[in-house]
Amino acid sequence: MSCTNKKYLSLMNKVLDEEATEREKHELYEHLDSCNECRVHFNELTYSTELLRRLAHPQLSAAFTKSVLDQLPAEKRHVILRWGSRHPVLTAVAICAVPMSLVVIGARHQTRDKNDYVLVNVSGDQT
C-alpha cells in the first residue's frame, strides 16, 4: 500500500477489530471510495481477518496443561519475597511500622524543657 496517509491504515485495523466509532468508519469508507490502493488493501485485510476467524480454536485437556506446568523449572524465589507476595497487606503494614517505630523511639530520646516543648540540639554554626 503506497497511500501517503498512514492514518487510514490505523483506521482499517480499528474497523476490522470492531473498535472504531461510527465517525471513524464513515471517514474510512469515504477514503476507500476515492483511493483504489487502500480499497484493495482493506479487502485483503478483511479476507485475512475472516480466514482467521474461521480457524478452529483447539481445546487442550487439563492433563496437557498439568504436564507442561510439571516440566517447568522449580521456582527459586526467596522465602521472604514469596511470603510478601502472598500477604500484601501485612507486608505494607510491616514496611510502614518499622520507620514509624524509629520515629517514635527517636522522639522519646529528645530532651524536653519544663513546658514540655521538644528541644532539638543542632550542632554547627548558626547565624
TrEMBL record:
Pfam families the UniProt entry points to: zf-HC2
Record-linked InterPro entries: Anti_sigma_zinc_sf (IPR041916), Znf_put (IPR027383)
GO molecular function: zinc ion binding
Domain annotation Putative zinc-finger: ranges: 8-39
Alphabetical UniProt keywords: Membrane, Metal-binding, Transmembrane, Transmembrane helix, Zinc, Zinc-finger
Lineage: superkingdom: Bacteria
Residue stretches spanning the membrane: 89-107
Annotated family: Belongs to the zinc-associated anti-sigma factor (ZAS) superfamily. Anti-sigma-W factor family.
Name used for this protein in its record: Anti-sigma-W factor RsiW
Organism: Sporolactobacillus nakayamae
